[in-house]
Amino acid sequence: MRRLAWAVAIVGALVVVQWVLPGPAAAKASWWSLIPPLVAISLALAFKDVILSLFLGVWLGAAMLDGGNLAAGFLRVVDTHMRTALVNSDHISIIVFSLLLGGMVGVMSRSGGTQGIVKVLEPLATTPARAQFAAWLMGVLIFFDDYANTLIVGNSMRPVTDRHRTSREKLAYLVDSTAAPVACLALVSTWIGYEVSLLGDALKAGGSPLNPFSVFVSSIPYAFYPLLALVITLVSSVSGRDWGPMLAAERRARAGAIFAETARPLADYERSGLAAEPETPKRWFNAAIPVLVVVAVTLAGLILTGRKALEAKGAPAFGLSRVVGASDPFTALLWASLLGLTVAIALAVGEGILSVRDALDATVKGFASMLMAVVVLTLAWSLGEVCGGLETARYLVGAVGPHLAPVLIPAAVFSVAALVSFATGTSWGTMAILTPLAVPLVLAGAAPHLHHHLIAETAAAILGGAVFGDHCSPISDTTIMSSMASSCDHVDHVRTQLPYAVLGAVLALFVGYLPEALFNVPVFISLPAGVAIVIVWFWTVGKPVET
Question: pTM of the entire structure?
Answer without folding.
Answer: 0.84
